């Protein structure tokens, strides 16, 4: 698991390789990632949008931006959390994801919450010994 805290908002991510949805012979690899967003701060916040940077093993990057997550813009009071699962395909057997959530505070101000960088690893990635 990967975890990072920004302004009292804790984001924890657990990636899982989906063997049953992947086709390595066709350069198609799929991961699910489970995210937990927990408000350990004193103010109520709302997740307004997301911005992901997804990089494959060849260094090709794609960016994904949009409103909310899985069709929702959850409001989190102090001590509350929100969890969801999403996924991403790659054409290489490994990669990395990192991003930010744009949150809105009670005064209407917008601030970024970091999503920790996490590794997308499949059992098809060649192991290199140093």
Automatic annotation (TrEMBL):
Domain (ApaG): residue spans on this chain: 3-127
Pfam families in the record: DUF525
InterPro entries, alphabetized: ApaG_domain, ApaG_sf, Uncharacterised_ApaG
Protein's GO biological process: error-free translesion synthesis
Matching HAMAP family: ApaG
Top-level division of the source organism's lineage: Bacteria
Protein name: Protein ApaG
NCBIfam families to which the protein is assigned, alphabetical: PRK05461.1
Disordered, as annotated region: 69-89
């Amino acid at each position: 698991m990967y975890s990072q805290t920004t302004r009292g908002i804790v984001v924890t991510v657990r990636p899982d390789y989906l063997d049953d949805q992947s086709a390595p012979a066709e350069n198609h690899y799929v991961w699910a990632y489970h995210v937990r967003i927990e408000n350990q701060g004193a103010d109520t916040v709302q997740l307004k949008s997301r911005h992901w940077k997804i990089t494959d093993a060849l260094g090709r990057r794609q960016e994904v931006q949009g409103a909310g997550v899985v069709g929702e813009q959850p409001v989190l009071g102090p001590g509350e959390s929100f969890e969801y699962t999403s996924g991403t395909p790659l054409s290489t057997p490994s990669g990395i994801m990192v991003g930010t959530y744009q949150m809105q505070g009670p005064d209407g101000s917008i601030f970024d919450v970091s999503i920790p960088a996490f590794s997308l690893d499949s059992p098809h990635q060649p192991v290199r010994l140093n």
